[in-house]
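Reply to dn_fold:

You asked what the input looked like. This is it:
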Amino acid sequence: MAMTPRPSFKTLFTDAAKSDRDRAAAGMFLSSGDAGIAEIAAGAGMDYLLIDAEHSPLSLESVQSQLRVIAGYDSIPVVRVPENNSRIIKQYLDLGAQSLIVPMIFTVDDAVKAAASVAYPPEGIRGIGSALARSGGWGRYPNYLTTARDTITLIIQIETAEALENIDEILTVEGIDGIFIGPSDLSASMGYLGQQNHPDVVAAAQNVIAKATAAGKIAGVNAFNPDQAADYVAAGADFVNVGADVALLARATEALAAKWTSTETETTSY
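and this is what came back:
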């Protein structure tokens, strides 16, 4: 039975999709590793869900389980891989991740390596095993080997002062679909640890957004603060990561505990 690959992240940014949406795409981190939470989030209506395999305790199996539950909803899954490693990237692609964010891109060579890792030879170095993997539908996607790259979105993460210095050259790399700015690491690298909203950090992020847009690349940023997120959208960001499952749960449970465990809380009999 022939199958068709699902849409990848870049389909959110076609002219038609942007016109229909008339706003920046909004998404959130999935950091818990739990497929049930991923399914709950998928039903909430976010444009995309970013499964974070860099800073979260996720196995390949747990990522694949999340991809499977998200597949039943409209939200597009994106996976942030642990590192810019062709062997690791190959594994995430084979388990069915079509949209990847590769962190810690410092130089043009790093960007070239990431681009090569998501493409089959002769354009790249991705190992061939799709007939045995979810990525190729276990051999059910016709012509997968020759069309696979078209179904993949590669976003690289810009999050250091070194990357800022090299951004013009990085943006020329063929095979890079877009960039994602990480203000937390960027602020630390710039000497402003914990100050994601420092004017210099914000200005640097906005400059990267402008340069990426001019280069025809998708540009996104992480911004949990609503006002900061709105400012980045106004600066031209195509997508904004506006929350995380674990952070939402932490704040909600804190608020619930504050309400019901305070000494001033009135008890009610049920």
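The two ends are 56 Å apart (CA to CA).
Hope that clears it up.
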